[in-house]
C-alpha cells in the first residue's frame, strides 16, 4: 500500500480532493473489522471474471407475434431471477439523446471543484467521496449529482447550465417510461396488473444520478463505488466505454463488459422484497481506473417516502414496512447499512 502520508503522494492533485480525504481515513486508529469495511461478504471467493449479461431486445415486446412478446417478457423475468442484472437494446432511448446527455454531463463535471461544490446547481445535489466513511474500504473515488426528478424541470436549478435542462428533462422522461415498461412486465409475471407501480412510484419520487469516476493514482487500493445493493425497485444505467462495473455472481466478482448500444438494468432491494425473493437484488461495485475517467448515468425507480410496501404474495418472508428508502437515497444515492425491511 502507498504511504499516503508521504509528500510525493499527497502532492498528487485530485479534483475533487479525494486523495486528501482518503489519506485522512488511513490515519484513523485501526477499527474492529466490520462487513462494511470489507470488500467481500462472508463466504465469497476473491476472484474476477468477465461476463456477458443477458442481452434482451425490447422491440420484441411490441411484436405482432404473441410468441415473440411472451419470449421477451420471459427473458426479462428469468434474468431478474437468475442474475438480478440484464442489458436491453432497442429500448426506445435514441443514441442521439444519450450522446447529448453525456455531452452535457461531461461539461458539468469539468466545472472547477470549488464552483460545483458551492454554486447550488441542480438543487444543490453535488456529492463527492463518501462523507460517512469510517475506514478506507468504505470510501468511493467518485463524484456525482444526485437529482430528484421533482426538480428537473425547474429553470432556477440550472443556473448558467441552461442547455442541460431540456436534455435532462427529455432523458429523465425516456428513462421513466422505460422503467415503467420493465416494472410492468415483472409485475405481470407475478400475477399483478402492469400498472401496479404507477401510484407507488410516481415520477416526482424518482432520481437521476450523474456519475464521474476520475482517474485514480491508487486504483489498486480503492473502489470507484463501494460494494452495495440498490434500495429502489429498479435501476437503469447508461455507461460509457471505459467499464468498471462488477457484480457478484455465484460467490465471485464478475466484470461487465460495456456495450455502447445497451442500457443495464438491475433489480433493487424493494423489488426483491415485493416479489418475495423471486427477483434478486445483487451486490455490485465499480472498480477505480488508474488511467481513464469514467462516466455513467443512473435512473432510480423509487416509491414515495410514505408508501407502505409489502410482499405481492403470501406467505411473505418480509414484513410490511413504511418506506424509508428516500431518506438514504436523497442524501447519498444509496441506502446506509442493511435493508431495514428484512426480518
Automatic annotation (TrEMBL):
InterPro entries: DIOX_N, IPNS-like_FE2OG_OXY, IPNS-like_sf, Iron_ascorbate_oxido_reductase, Oxoglu/Fe-dep_dioxygenase_dom. Belongs to the iron/ascorbate-dependent oxidoreductase family. GA2OX subfamily. It catalyses: gibberellin A1 + 2-oxoglutarate + O2 = gibberellin A8 + succinate + CO2. Keywords: Dioxygenase, Iron, Metal-binding, Oxidoreductase. GO terms for biological process: gibberellin metabolic process. The lineage of its organism: Eukaryota, Viridiplantae, Streptophyta, Embryophyta, Tracheophyta. Its EC number is 1.14.11.13. This is gibberellin 2beta-dioxygenase.
Amino acid at each position: 500500500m502507498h504511504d499516503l502520508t508521504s509528500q510525493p503522494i499527497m502532492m498528487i492533485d485530485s479534483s475533487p480532493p479525494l486523495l486528501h480525504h482518503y489519506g485522512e481515513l488511513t490515519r484513523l486508529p485501526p477499527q474492529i473489522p466490520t462487513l462494511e469495511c470489507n470488500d467481500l461478504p462472508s463466504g465469497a471467493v476473491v476472484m474476477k471474471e468477465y461476463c456477458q449479461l443477458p442481452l434482451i431486445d425490447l422491440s420484441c415486446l411490441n411484436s405482432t407475434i404473441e410468441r415473440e412478446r411472451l419470449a421477451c417478457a420471459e427473458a426479462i423475468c428469468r434474468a431478474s431471477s437468475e442474475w438480478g442484472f440484464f442489458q436491453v437494446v432497442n429500448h426506445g432511448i435514441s443514441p442521439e439523446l444519450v450522446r447529448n446527455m453525456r455531452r452535457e454531463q461531461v461539461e458539468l463535471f469539468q466545472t472547477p471543484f470549488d464552483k460545483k461544490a458551492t454554486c447550488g446547481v441542480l438543487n444543490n445535489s453535488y456529492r463527492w467521496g463518501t462523507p460517512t466513511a469510517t475506514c478506507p474500504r468504505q470510501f468511493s473515488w467518485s463524484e456525482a449529482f444526485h437529482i430528484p426528478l421533482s426538480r428537473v424541470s425547474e429553470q432556477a436549478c440550472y443556473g448558467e447550465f441552461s442547455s442541460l435542462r431540456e436534455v435532462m428533462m427529455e432523458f429523465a422522461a425516456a428513462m421513466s417510461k422505460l422503467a415503467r415498461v420493465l416494472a410492468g412486465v415483472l409485475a405481470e409475471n407475478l400475477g399483478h396488473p402492469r400498472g401496479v407501480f404507477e401510484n407507488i412510484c410516481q415520477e416526482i419520487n424518482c432520481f437521476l444520478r450523474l456519475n464521474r469516476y476520475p482517474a485514480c493514482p491508487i486504483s489498486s487500493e480503492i473502489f470507484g463505488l463501494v460494494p452495495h445493493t440498490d434500495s429502489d425497485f429498479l435501476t437503469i444505467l447508461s455507461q460509457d466505454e471505459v467499464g468498471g462495473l462488477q457484480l457478484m455472481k455465484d460467490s465471485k466478482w464478475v466484470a461487465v463488459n460495456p456495450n455502447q448500444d445497451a442500457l443495464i438494468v438491475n433489480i433493487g432491494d424493494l423489488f426483491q422484497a415485493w416479489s418475495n425473493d423471486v427477483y434478486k437484488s445483487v451486490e455490485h461495485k465499480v472498480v477505480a481506473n488508474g488511467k481513464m475517467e469514467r462516466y455513467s448515468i443512473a435512473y432510480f425507480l423509487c416509491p414515495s417516502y410514505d408508501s407502505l410496501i409489502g410482499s405481492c404474495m403470501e406467505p411473505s418472508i418480509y414484513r410490511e414496512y413504511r418506506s424509508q428508502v428516500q431518506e438514504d437515497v436523497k442524501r447519498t444515492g444509496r441506502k446506509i447499512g442493511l435493508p431495514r425491511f428484512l426480518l
